[in-house]
Every structure is written in C-alpha cells, then in structure tokens.
Amino acid sequence: MDKNSNIEMITGDPKKAINKLSLPIIASMFLIFANNIIDSIWVAGLGAEPLAALGYITPLFLILVGFGNGIGAGGNSLISRYIGAEDRHSANNAAIHNLILSLIVSIIIMIIFLISMEPLLKIMGAVSVIDYAMDYGTIIFIWTFAILMPPIVGGAFRAEGDIKRATLPIAVAAIINMILDPIFIYTFGMGIKGAAWATALGPFISLLLMFYWIFIKKDTYLSYDFKDFHNDLKIYKDILVVGIPASLEQLVLSVLTIFVNYMLTIVSGPVAVAVYTAGWRVLNIGMLPAIGVGTAAISVAGVAFGAGKYENLRITARYAVKVALIASIIVCIILNLFANQIAFIFSYSENSAQLEPLIASFLQLMCLFILYVPFGASAANVFQGMGKGTISFILTAFREFILVLIFAYILGFTLNMGEFGIYAGMLLGGGIGSLICYSCIELYINKLMKVNKKET
C-alpha cells in the first residue's frame, strides 16, 4: 500500500501520532465549545428565559451532534483498521459508504426531531419557555444535514491522518457562527432565531468546503471515485456496529442532561437550569483535552488493532490517559481560580445579573468532574477504535447515566440535599464509573496480548 506522510505518521509511534492528531482536534473543539459559550453569552443578553430555552434544546442538539460524531467514529474505526491492514481499496470503498450513510442518517434524524421536538420539550419541563425553545429548535433541526455530515466526513479524514482537513471545516463553522451571532440576534433583531440561523449556516459552509476537497480538488489520500464503488451492506453494518453505540453514548449523555434539567426544575426552577446550562458549557471546554486526545486515539488504536500490534494498543490507551489527565488538572485549577470572572460573562446584562454568584459556585464545585473524564473517555475511544462499539456504549451508559443519575437522585432527593446534592451525586457517580471503565480497557488489552502470545 502506497503511503503518504499522514499514513506513515498514524502507523508509526503511537505517542507521536496521538500528539500530532490531538492538538488540532483540541483546537477545533475549543472553537466549537467557545462558539457554544458565545451563543450562551449573546442569548443571555435577551434574559434568563431565552437562556433557559437554549438549555432545554441543548440536550436534543447534543443528540444530533452525537449521531454525527458517532457515525464519524464508526467510519474512522473501520477505515483505520483497513489502513492498518494495508488494504487501500477497502478503505476507499468504506469512505464512500461512510459519505452515503451520512446523508441517509441526516434525513431520518431530521424528520424524527421535527416531529417529536415539541412533546419532548414539554416532557422536559420547558412549558414556561416553549415558544423560545421551538423558535430555536425548529431552525436547527431543519438544517440537520449541515450539522450532521461534517463530523461524519471528518471521521474519514482522521482515519487517513489528514487532521487538517478533519478540523479546519469545524474551525470555519465556529468562526462564522461567532461572527453572525450578534448580527442576526441584535443588528437584524431576530432574537433567539438569529442564534439558530448562525449555528446552522456555519457548518453548512464547512460542508461545502469538504465537498470541494473531495469532488473538485480530489487530492485526498482516500478516493471517492464512484467508479470504484461496490455497494456492500456489510460495510454499512461495520460502520454502524461502532457508530450506533457511539451515537447512543451521546444520547445517554443528553438524556442525562434532560433528567438533570428536570431535577433542577423541581428543586429551583428555570434559574437553576440557566445556571447549569451556562456552567456546563464552560466545563465542556475544560473537558476538551480528554475528548481531543480520546478522539485521536480512535485512529491510532484502529490502526494498531488492524495491524495486530497490541503493545501499541496498550501504549495508546495509557498515553492518552496520561496526557489528558495532566491537562485536565491544569484546567481544573484555572476554572476554580477564575470562576467569578468567567461567571460574569454570562451575567453582563440586568436581565441575567443574578446568575453570576450561582454560576461561579457551580464552576468551583463541578470543575472536579473534569478530572474523571480522561479515564472514561480514553477507554471508550480505544474500544471504538478496535471496533468494539457495544462495549464502549455499555461502559459509558453505566458510567454517565446509571451511576451519575442514581447518585444525583439519592443525594439530591432521598437525602434532601437539593441542588448541591444533585451536583455532588454527579461527581461521585462519574468518578466511580470512569475508574471502572479504564480498568476494563486494561484488562481487555492484556487478554488480547496473552492470546496473541499463545498463538505465536
């Protein structure tokens, strides 16, 4: 198999590959979450109710993004394994299947969300802000294909080690959104609808950029020439075997957010939801090192697994945790020290001034959650890279939904600790679950190495 510099990089030293892949991923993800923060900042200027409406839509939006990232992880995993096995023809065919699948999934999800959005919002407790939520959500979900397809196509770029093309469109989308937000919301007087239009148009333009590289410039390592396309249902299945569980992982996280929003609504009302919405978006930025390193580990683990290099697989898992944990500790300290200053950016108007001390307190407590993410995220992504999406999903569901939700309910309601109890329960459940998940990936890799040693 002919190799370019990107292929040589991801098939070489796992540590160097993770370093090279993760930094651009973290940078692009930073722009995405900074973009979400900026959305919240501009919407906060409209008042607490529009910001709360954004909070109710957020878990549904994250489900949408999760499907994109999940299917992208499935394509990334399969293509990486073909590249590791030095089967370029199959890698090309899988890339085309990945692209077709992204369009099909986009259409299906758009229809489902547009039909179910209003009843879901009412179930979530968004009745008091339903008009704001519907105005924002309807526009977002009409543009499902523009939001869903870039991360799926980007998964193929990451598989071939072309991290620039995988991340540049994401950066373009975020920057466009940042520019359009104040123009649409305030200059054009569109309010929360303007925030939705800005969010949709950014990724649409980034998708056009990806199509330019694939179909016009045609200089990617993977070929998208449909003359070489051989429709194979097994390839769709192989992508979905990882993609669906990976997507469901985000669904689990979003459902958890829905439950947390509901519990907070019972305890303190929409103000608590607004605090959680703003604070959690800040914490999402703090989780970027772990998420970025974990995303890079999918490609590196997939190549190592496809080549049968299980020692590289173990190096990938351990190095990913080490790098992400060091960065997460630094971020946690920064958030704790500057919580008040960060909280101020969400409370700059008279309508939202009362949120500042509440958001600051939230950040000082919940920044500890960041420290658990490297263990759980790295384990889940290495499993995805090996094509073990179901195992990854089970572990994530156990960690982020069952344990977190159970402890949040027990501390918040059974022990009558209220809002603080909900947050403390999330910390306790997340910490226990993450350590269990990392133990599982170590045991699994050790088993692979022992079996391989016996066979040789």
Task: Summarize it.
The protein is mostly helical.
What is the SS-derived class? mainly alpha
Approximately how much beta-strand content do the residues carry? under 5%
Poorly predicted runs:
none
Largest sheet: none
In DSSP terms (H or I, runs of 4 or more residues), the helix count works out at: 17
Give the N-to-C terminal Cα separation.
Answer: 25 Å
- Identify the overall geometry: globular
Question: How many distinct beta strands?
Answer: 0
Q: List SSEs in N-to-C order.
A: HHHHHHHHHHHHHHHHH
* Approximate helicity band: over 70%
Structure explained in plain terms:
There is one protein chain. This protein has 456 residues and is an all-alpha fold. Helix content is 84%, strand content 0%. The chain has 17 helices and no strands. It is globular. The mean pLDDT is 86.
